[in-house]
Amino acid sequence: MTFQDLLKRVEGAKPETLPALLPELFKGLYEGGLLDSEVEALFLTLKRKTGVSVAALRKDWARYRATRDAQAREEEAPPITPEAREAARELSEDPALLHRAIRTIGELGVVGEEENRGLLYLAFLSARTEAPISVLVKGRSSSGKSFLVKQTLALIPPRGYYELSSMSAKALVYADVDFRHRHLVLYEEDGLNSEEVLYLVRTLLSEGQIRYLTVEKTPQGRMAAREIVRPGPTGLITTLTKGLTKEDNETRTFSLYMNDTKGHTLRVVQALAEREARGARPEVDPAPWHALYEALPQVEVVVPFAPAIARLLEAQDLPEDLTRLRRDFGRFLTLVKVAALLHHARREAREGRLVATLEDYALAYHLAARPLARSVHTVSPQALALAVAVREVHEAKVEEAAGKNVPEGAVAVYVKELARHLRWAKRTVQKWVDQAEAAGLVDVQRDGNRLAIRPVEGAPLEEAAFRLLPEPERLARELGEGGSYVHPLTGETCVLLLPQTACAFPAKAGENAVLNEENQRARHAHDRARPPEERPSGEEKSRARSEVASPSQNSEECARAELEALAKKAGGRLFKVVPSRAPALEEDEVEVEL
């Protein structure tokens, strides 16, 4: 219907015909795509003819529109076919599943950001648990925040999320939509910066459900407060960061930082150029991934080695202010549980509960260790880059001042100099100075709007210095267990041995060899999760370990022979035995760490 058609219907409205007219009117508004000004004109006419409140009409219209949008999204999703279910079953049995998901998002056009891709994908899957993970995706304008989210959503069926467009936040409250076990997705560029939206988002972050307090007129004509609740659990994925930077909001989310360096920008441009030169667009069938999501069991997952992680955390040099770890640790364990759910076809179940393994810890570790460390140490890659720039500029100025007999204490670095050194805008420099100062990386003296910045002696300036979670190898040693996993970022197969770690690249691209995985799992079942009377004796456990570690403890020759055998099983060849990280290897080479 056109505006004129609807206007004729509204002109003939009467109070007694209003209930029958509204559904037809809203249907015409929705399908006609009228302008907001035209909608308002119709509502004002309807008020004049029937006495109905325009505010009430807006509320009912917002609810109708949100409900139709949600229905349209779910109807657009094609039904899951038997072929898709079979493909999903094969995915769930693949040890390289998470690596394949990260690679698929890359095929959809996301350049780099592998860590962010994987963590965001696991966060979306966490909606299947009782504690969905919320994520703030941060970065400069045009850094690809929303593109990353939207391409990751391609692997999630419509019923797993709800995208809020630029409509009123009240539509979210009044919509006839089930938000349980879903993520609410908000994009900054949609103009969702109103206090109304931020209130809903903060409530969602703090309580895991949507609450909205409104004032409505009762049948008796009095105004009364009413609280509307949309039950959860509901998670949040957003690039809407400006109004959510308060500490209380930050501690309830993972913060992902986009790579906005010059080098990465050039890689993105190169990828775009190559794609245009080929003239082909990525074609990815989302059906198997949607079927995989639907097939995830909603069962309890236990993490038997969680106490061991906590013990290793206690042994580390951590900052004094560690209160946010109380929330972060629980979120990380949720990621471990999601990894177990993702690989449920290859996990042991006890009394109806899935048991997470060292493999699940390793997968979650490689995706979340750095974001978690940044959160606890309150430092971002940008703040570190700024601190390094302060050190470099300060050293150059001190050297120059020495020839002029200017004392070192009088030398400071200023925002303008940092902007020139880093090739950042001044506002970008000022944005990260505060965080670098809070993390103890720089010292700032303020004189009005002028900032005098100096390096802090002994402050760590490499991200590796900010650690939190124990590496998988260290946890394996603590537990006295081994295992194998496919690295989610590189696709290499890594085997946790005692006391060695072997990592083998597949001999052929695209293949992920698994080193006798079934035997490894059988040997290294998590005995700590069993009742005491069922645990193996010390002699049995010692024998089990020796089968994994072999006589390498007494003979370097035996160790090398065993590791060569493992490498052969992995489809590669032994590269060398090293005391620390080796340079990048060729695809058919194996790195072994002692």
Q: How would the global form be characterised?
A: globular
Average residue-wise pLDDT: 76
How many domains make up the 3D coordinates?
A: 5
Kindly estimate the percentage of residues that lie in beta strands according to DSSP.
Answer: 5-15%
Please tell me how large the radius of gyration is: 28 Å
The strand line-up of the biggest sheet is 2-3-6-1-7
Helix content: 40-55%
What structural category do the secondary elements indicate?
alpha/beta
Low-confidence spans: pLDDT under 50, at least 5 residues? Answer: 504-556, 569-594
DSSP, total strands:
17
Characterize the biggest β-sheet.
Answer: 5 strands, parallel
Kindly identify the CATH topology of the largest domain: Rossmann fold
CATH class of the largest domain: Alpha Beta
CATH superfamily membership of the largest domain, which one? Answer: P-loop containing nucleotide triphosphate hydrolases
- How many angstroms does the end-to-end distance come to? 74 Å
Count of DSSP H/I helices: 23
What is the second-level CATH architecture of the largest domain?
A: 3-Layer(aba) Sandwich
Biased composition (Basic and acidic residues): 528-546
Region (Disordered): 518-559
Protein name: DNA primase
Organism: Thermus scotoductus
Quick synopsis:
This protein has about 600 residues and is an alpha/beta fold. The chain contains 23 helices and 17 strands. The strands form five sheets. A five-stranded parallel sheet has the order 2-3-6-1-7, with helices on both faces. A five-stranded mixed sheet has the order 13-14-15-17-16, sandwiched between helices. Strands 8-10-9 form a three-stranded mixed sheet, with helices on one face.
